[in-house]
Amino acid sequence: MLHIFPGDTVRTWTVDAGGVDSKGVRRSLGGNPETGPFYIEGAFPGDTLVVKLNRLRLNRDSAVSGDRIEPSALSPGYIQSTKYDDKFDSNWVLDREKGIARLKQPSERLKNYTVKLQPMLGCIAVAPPGHQAFRTGFLGSYGGNMDYNQIREGTTVYLPVSAPGALLFVGDGHAAQGDGELTGDALETSMQVEFTVNLIKGKSTRNPRAENDDYLMSLGIANSLPEAVQAATTDLANWLQRDYKLEPNEAAIVLGTAIQYNIAEVVDPLVHVVAKISKETLAKLK
Amino acid sequence: MLHIFPGDTVRTWTVDAGGVDSKGVRRSLGGNPETGPFYIEGAFPGDTLVVKLNRLRLNRDSAVSGDRIEPSALSPGYIQSTKYDDKFDSNWVLDREKGIARLKQPSERLKNYTVKLQPMLGCIAVAPPGHQAFRTGFLGSYGGNMDYNQIREGTTVYLPVSAPGALLFVGDGHAAQGDGELTGDALETSMQVEFTVNLIKGKSTRNPRAENDDYLMSLGIANSLPEAVQAATTDLANWLQRDYKLEPNEAAIVLGTAIQYNIAEVVDPLVHVVAKISKETLAKLK
Amino acid sequence: MLHIFPGDTVRTWTVDAGGVDSKGVRRSLGGNPETGPFYIEGAFPGDTLVVKLNRLRLNRDSAVSGDRIEPSALSPGYIQSTKYDDKFDSNWVLDREKGIARLKQPSERLKNYTVKLQPMLGCIAVAPPGHQAFRTGFLGSYGGNMDYNQIREGTTVYLPVSAPGALLFVGDGHAAQGDGELTGDALETSMQVEFTVNLIKGKSTRNPRAENDDYLMSLGIANSLPEAVQAATTDLANWLQRDYKLEPNEAAIVLGTAIQYNIAEVVDPLVHVVAKISKETLAKLK
Amino acid sequence: MLHIFPGDTVRTWTVDAGGVDSKGVRRSLGGNPETGPFYIEGAFPGDTLVVKLNRLRLNRDSAVSGDRIEPSALSPGYIQSTKYDDKFDSNWVLDREKGIARLKQPSERLKNYTVKLQPMLGCIAVAPPGHQAFRTGFLGSYGGNMDYNQIREGTTVYLPVSAPGALLFVGDGHAAQGDGELTGDALETSMQVEFTVNLIKGKSTRNPRAENDDYLMSLGIANSLPEAVQAATTDLANWLQRDYKLEPNEAAIVLGTAIQYNIAEVVDPLVHVVAKISKETLAKLK
User: Fold this and answer.
1) Most CB within 10 Å of its CB: which of A197, B140, C96, D171?
2) Best B80, B224, B227, B229 residue to mutate vs chain D (most D CBs within 10 Å)
3) From start to end of B73-207, where are the E strands?
4) Is D279 helix (H, G, I), strand (E, B) or coil?
5) pLDDT at A286
6) Dihedral of the CA atoms B98, B99, B105, B110 (nearest 10)?
7) Would you say the pTM of this structure is higher than 0.90?
8) ipTM of the complex, rounded to two decimals
9) Is B202 on the interface with D (CB under 8 A)?
């Protein structure tokens, strides 16, 4: 376990969701193996861990994805009638120079199909509350397998600390991913990661948040989509009321006119809806 | 009932959700009064009505919105603890020259708060199937009170025809609206509307779709958010498979890497999630 | 339209869900054709219509049911892997003397399978609010296709009146049905029906209720099961607080120890959960 | 850790959910402290642990319950408008001779209110899969805080083994409980417990099941009520198809006419719906 201090910058790397590194060497079992834990000196329950993702760079030329839509995102009729091809090849070539991914052995119709590389971290977590231990496919108030495609280079993630040292983990890099991680596996690959940690002492929300140059983001993780919408909306309302000193009606006016939702994750053990508000909007609050 | 023909362009106007027109005159009872029906000659069940919104322009300088977040989008704890101010004034001034809205009597913190004007139609509908009659706050396979903020000038809406003549209605204009119509009422106002109708004969999806310069959009309207995600995702997969000749695995690859979701509506009798794919992505399909 | 008066008893009959009567004669189109409307003199919006089902008797020896579980009640994996036999015969013989139903052409394993006859009304409705018109497969605050297997002979149903005369309908008799109407169609058959109507003037709940010798029942009809549980529980709490003068904590104590839930309907356009409390429990309230 | 063998009978006791034993002595922290683990010799992943509850007896004269309905089971309007009395006393006297519970300091309206004693175990669990560790308020495929009021004396519980020795825990005894554990805490008390363990080698369902003299019960534990209904229904269909050799249509016929649902738990981190079928019905299968 690496001990680091608030203000420290860490350069490290992650293996892919299957445990394979940048050289193609299997370094661990599959299932979202993580890099960490990092013990942040001075972090205690009730604090918030601040993780700025300075750099998130691909370090190899291959990825693999799922090739079927998860049934939880489909109507029963589609599930009943659809026949998939078991031999479909969903290996990808990552062309880092051009900034695109393409299928390694594309089917006829996907010969010209390319995806813009937008590396993201599927997993970023601290130790869960109450000494619990979850598999790394899980997500919750402690972060985890959140699979939100805006957790990219330049994004800052806020996580509520539940154990001394916070015990930060990162992993499950995706070269690119649509909303919801619809095929269960995005373009799974290994990565170089550089982040800087900081602490907000004695203040903690019960859920993760994120921030980038353009948005404040409340990450609503819950059992079902309606509950995830409720969690994200409520957190964003509270954020405006506490940090921007808005009254409830004022928060309603701002969110009613300016809230945006992203559906981050529909296929994991819990679902994830993000409520966000632009900094351009916030600049108009006196 | 106005009879029009495929290819016709109609210039008309809508009153606001409360029934008030551009002069401030009450023209009908409130609750999303509609303009129409327009009987499209030659439209029969099994066809698709195509409505291109050529112009959607504000025609007065005032709007009124809700000032409380709908409880269905909030956690029980927030509902229990929040006290709203009954005297909050949520009347808006629409400055059409500058293209912004501002509160008429803003509270201190919202003195500088402005919202970009982005006029949209809350309601666009044909007659529902099976001779049913729903209130205009309702939505469904026939369209209705969909409250999606991308149903704007330049957008084309596709609606499945269930009755001879289709019986097109439009109404419930919003000067601007965040995702989900979170306060129940957006910036409700009257509008000038110009649209062109066309028919796709003998082809019909069971749900509404939309299209603009940038996106194909499957409008998933359902009882609950999980079902709305399923409806929207399934329709978009079917769209790719039928019109772009993709096999199921190929559709999964494309959606897994490029789908985007919008949460259009969380507060109405049914909820509305949009699954969309960019035309830039579609251009890469051979 | 038959005009009747509060206190009147009506003897009538219903065709089956496919429109066939006791003689095997098709009397209407299928899809839950109804008997009615009955115009109850003196019934006005804001009143409650009270319908006591005095007699509900089978009047023929045949029924037909569904033979597949509705996919909405099954996990995706089961849907994907299950192959049904298209030639399965789900016609039933109703042995009214012995009080049992058995398959007409039973498969080997179901040779001895019998079901106790417990006739119930799938549909009982008044006109919906707001001049709306729904198909008879629909259900809602006005009753409708509630498919609750306790709406039997001896049960009293309470329906909120929304139109002058209430406009009572009955139909969709089932000879027997498990919880949830899992196969979409129960043992659909025709019936003799005798009921007595009464009015509670100037009092109305927003949802249907029922009562028999043993239970008070709050019928929670909603878009999703969580909302149906909320509707049913809330109505039963309000019932105890208003009619039994309990304070909120007292209602919580009684419901926490004595509430029972039934899942009445999982396969219709809306779902239906019943919250009930025994009269034995109520007798202990001072 | 006590090592026991298949066929062994264990007599033990549980403290209440707050950690207090039959003498009123606090023996552990609160939050559903458990008795165990019991290491069952010969139990391995892939087996099913069979736990017959021979005796479940109250061993003291007091219990305490919640006195507010959990907001997740209530409509937002009720939550907003309801004022609870903070000083309400929800301590109970357990009269084991008469077999009833009554409030210790009843309010006027609840002076005569009694509840029949029907002791049950809120928690019965084996170690979760994948070396995970959950708080004892959690539930899942491994059992846990299932809070089903039919897990009583005479009931047999089947749990899928995920760790060598199974690691059986019991706890969270309730003197009585309505459906759904609506007040969050039922009549929490300590108990004497006697159970006999057995193993079904090399066979395992992915979810818990139960059985008593009258019913087979599939315990559907999931994130949301619709998913819990799906899990329970699917498991019961599979149970009939595998152990009673029914074809899918036959299973549909039997479940369509005879399934019963219980809503076991609506207030915990996951929800719990039971699908059950009577042994009287099963006796009619050839």
Assistant:
1) D171
2) B80
3) 91-95, 100-103, 114-116, 120-125, 139-140, 143-144, 156-160, 168-174, 191-200
4) helix
5) 77
6) -100
7) yes
8) 0.96
9) no
